[in-house]
Amino acid sequence: MPSRDWRFRIQDIVLSINEIKQRTRGVTFEEFTKNQTLVKAVLYDFVVIGEATRNVPNDIQLRYPLIPWRLMGGMRNVVTHEYFQVDLSRVWETIQNDLSSLLPQLQEVLEREISGE
After folding, report:
1. Is residue 41 in a domain?
2. φ, ψ (nearest 5 deg) of residue 17
3. Is 33 in contact with 88 (CB distance < 8 Å)?
4. What does the alpha-carbon distance between residue 87 and residue 116 come to, in Å, rounded to a whole number?
5. pLDDT at position 2, please?
6. What is the pLDDT of residue 4?
7. Is residue 101 part of a domain?
8. Minimal CB count within 10 Å: which of 13, 34, 84, 110?
9. For the whole prediction, is pTM greater than 0.85?
10. What is the extent of the structural domain holding 84?
11. Is residue 82 part of a domain?
12. DSSP letters along 51-69, please?
């Protein structure tokens, strides 16, 4: 049995997304790549996102197929196990283009599942 309810894992994802967005706000790609502390903090949050995703039950993931659960877990695997292959331009593209749209989707999951819709 997981150590935490999956709903808390979704909240962890939301928190990590917000932290990534806050840390990178007003930062250029060039500034990002030159700041190893920032890069490592952001990559850690991506690991949290992916690990939390792995703990969301399959039936919940299947109910929300527009959320890229598998990609989120896959990014964690690359950062954790294939760290030497991390493509910072792809990480940056994800930050700029994908994270903001995930927030309302994740909030919907929490709201619908808590209310029992």
Report:
1. yes
2. -60, -45
3. yes
4. 40
5. 56
6. 85
7. yes
8. 84
9. yes
10. 6-115
11. yes
12. HHHHTS-HHHHHH-TTS-H
Give the chain's domain count.
1
Do residues 52 and 6 make contact, with C-beta atoms less than 8 angstroms apart? no
Catalytic center residues: 76, 81
User: Binning pLDDT at 50, 70 and 90, where does residue 3 land?
Assistant: confident
Integer angstrom CA distances of residue 113 from 8, 64, 86, 94: 12, 11, 34, 26
Reply yes or no on whether the pLDDT at 59 is more than 70. yes
Residue 16 lies in a domain: yes
d(CA 99, CA 109): 16
Please name the amino acid found at residue 2: P
Average pLDDT over residues 84-109: 95
Q: Which of 72, 38, 39 is closest to 55 using CA atoms?
A: 72
Extract the tokens encoding 94: 């994800």
Where are the strands (E) in the chain, listed by range? none
